[in-house]
Amino acid sequence: MRRTTRKCETYARGVVSTSTPAGITGGPFRFMLGATVLCFSGYALLLPVVPLWAERGGSGALGSGATTAMLMATTVATQLAVPWLLVRIGHRWVLAAGSVLLGAPAPFLALSADLAPVLALSALRGIGFGLATVAGSALVAELVPRAQHGRAAGRYGLAVGVPQLVLLAVGVAAVERFGFTAVFVVAGVVPVLGALLVPAIRMPGAPAATLTRPRPRPATRSALAPVVAMVTCSIAQGGLITFLPLAVPDAGLLVPGALLATAAGALFGRLAAGELVDRRGWGGRLLVPGMLLAAAGMGAEVAGGGALVVIGAVAVGFGFGLVQNDSLTVLFAAFGSSGYGAASALWNIAYDAGTGVGALGLGAVAEPFGYPAAFGVAAVVLCAGVALTWIKPRQPAR
């Protein structure tokens, strides 16, 4: 009788769960990280190589830039539909399909350097990247308990960031040594290998019985702060990565060192934020410090020269790393367990759209007024984001 009563009480709360997530030390989460590393390796390897391939084909600077623009445009457009797909076909199928679509078209780039086929293949790869990014970050929340979301997001940041840290520079060097075709083949095979890991990502058991299906929470106001923080920081970092080599020409190893520093800073920022969110309960409190740190870094780039270039790049990267992790955990909390897919899509769209706006918008400022002016505008945008975030209510992640 007592057992029956307990069961009825559980049914009345609306959910009977057959299992709980294994956590950040569990096999499913680790296999997801492995698939993410392989997927982003294919993405990072070709990011600087495809524009170079288009330029070798006679497309010029505009055509070369259009290849990246096409990749990111289809990425963002796809991300809008991924929450719907996650519900209907599942996280694992979406991640696997994204990895295959990102990798499989890559070897076909070797067939022609003409702009039209390169753009078409870039668009197809962007669809795959959009599927994989949203499914991957949604799995961060699905595969671990909520108390581990911060650290899980930090480890996911490593899986995303380390391939970019290593392979963005390696891709161009590999082309010079081994040729375009070899690089295209490797960049195609690696994400497909990542898809082969997906069957090992076992999802937590679905509810055994429900009386009422949970509805996604209305998260418009509580989602504003993390989205503003993500967009403004990605505008700054997108502009920094795009224009720093042009702003500091003939600087030897200074610019590569600064770009490496901003990528490494972002990795350490994400790890630090994960620990602070989970162990100190600082969810939602790192957005403003992260934006202020990034604004200070862009201010250092305005002053320019020598060590300030590297120091500013580190500050931008570390500040953005804090914001990336904290904003993702805040969005997971704001949307609730039934809306992890929507939270992931919103986070990724803010990241990718902000990067594109940074490259295009700050370029429009730099053309007539110079690169220091563009970096200064980015700093002002970050300060405006701080003001907007500060006056709006913030919902902490825990």
From TrEMBL:
Subcellular location: Cell membrane
TM helices/strands, residue ranges: 31-54, 66-86, 93-111, 123-144, 156-175, 181-201, 222-247, 253-273, 282-300, 306-323, 330-349, 369-391
Annotated SUPFAM superfamilies: MFS general substrate transporter
Membrane topology of this protein: Multi-pass membrane protein
Keyword Coiled coil belongs to the record: no
GO molecular function: transmembrane transporter activity
UniProt cross-references to InterPro entries, sorted A to Z: MFS, MFS_dom, MFS_Exporter, MFS_trans_sf
Lineage: Bacteria, Bacillati, Actinomycetota, Actinomycetes, Pseudonocardiales
Cellular-component GO terms for this entry: plasma membrane
Keyword Magnesium: no
Entry keywords, A to Z: Membrane, Transmembrane, Transmembrane helix
PROSITE patterns according to UniProt: MFS (PS50850)
Protein name: Putative MFS family arabinose efflux permease
Domain Major facilitator superfamily (MFS) profile positions: 20-397
Organism superkingdom: Bacteria
